[in-house]
Amino acid sequence: MPYLVAMFKDRQLLHIYAIIFIDVVVGSAIGPILPEFVKGHSYPQLWLALGTGLFLGVQLFSAPLLGKLSDGYGRRPIFIISAIGTFIADCMLLPVRLGAQLANRFSDGLTNGMYATVRSAITDISPKDELFKNLGIEGAIISLGFVIGPAVSGLLLTTFDVAEGNQARVVVWLAISLSALNVGLSFLLRETSKTQPGVSREVLKKEVVGALNATTIWHRLLQKDQQAPGLKQLVLMQLALTLSTGYYFYFVTFASFGTLQMDAKAISYFFMYFGALSVGISYVFYTYLADRIDQRRAIIWLAGLSVPVLAGYGFVGTSRVALYALVTVDCLTISLIQGLIEGLMAQKTTDADRGEVFGLNQALQGLASFGTTIVFGGLSLLDLRLPFGWFALCVGLVAVMAGRNKG
Predict the structure, then answer these.
(1) Domain map of the chain by residue range?
(2) Distance (Å, rounded) from C-alpha 220 to C-alpha 107?
(3) pTM of the full predicted structure?
(4) How far is Cα of residue 393 from the mean position of the Cα atoms in its chain?
(5) What is the CATH architecture of 2-189+202-404?
């Protein structure tokens, strides 16, 4: 466990990981109770998809803006703004109604562009030979958050034997408390960026206007690709991966309203297993293997093997044994790809434009997430199993693009 010991010695890195962890716990804790917000409405799966689309799509605007601001004024202010935004968004959930859920998704999405700043901050303080490890550990921390969030919700509801009608409200109060804790942690974070040149009013105005135009964002990415050849191809791979990982957001709908008929507790237990296994596998992979392998070739193999895994989710029927078997293979394949792409991408950034590059990338990811949400929302109206065919197709595209990427 030498790397784990070293990680704890780097308190600044540990502090960032703690903020990430709590943020993901807050988001994943409310996942199992989201169906409560759409009960009684026609086409509940469509309303859940709309909420997800709002959350992810608004990042098209927020991510590049926050990334640019983090380059100009430092990472710490963006952490603080994002934490406060999440706290306010969680407070909006207290009336367990559809309108409250949609307002929460929109508000939380505005500041969720923080993750561009998170990756910039980690890259700021990471030695080159530990970059893949640190970004990989970030992925493992996110997976751990996906474990603890549903686990805490399930434990809370089980321990206090909360009646079904009150479960959503209790979990929302839990989320509010944890997001308040993250506000405090963000204020205590030390700055990671070496320079804060500021952002002029003209540049900021241009950034806001440009963030509303996907074409402008793409042209800016092309300019960055000229400075760091191969960056565009990595972003395209990331977008295809984002289209496929829409199944993370779709799964609650599938498990709740499909043949599995899983309640909030069953969904919590499933994500506990999923996240715990993913954490263990990711830790071993990024600590001992990621730096010693051909990362591009690994992406090809992992993405190719992920195709039958994602397609298989649509054929589990009522078998939870089959579901758990598939998610085990999932943790060994598609769950490992994100960190590899981010590591390759981080190597093509500089101190001056790191936040901007990650912000542009997250903005385009937001657009891809919004698009895949529309697709899986429409397909789910025909058959709840069909979206997994779409997810499998998209991860197959990752393998194809990785095979063609020579940058």
Answers:
(1) 2-189+202-404
(2) 26
(3) 0.71
(4) 20
(5) Up-down Bundle (1.20)
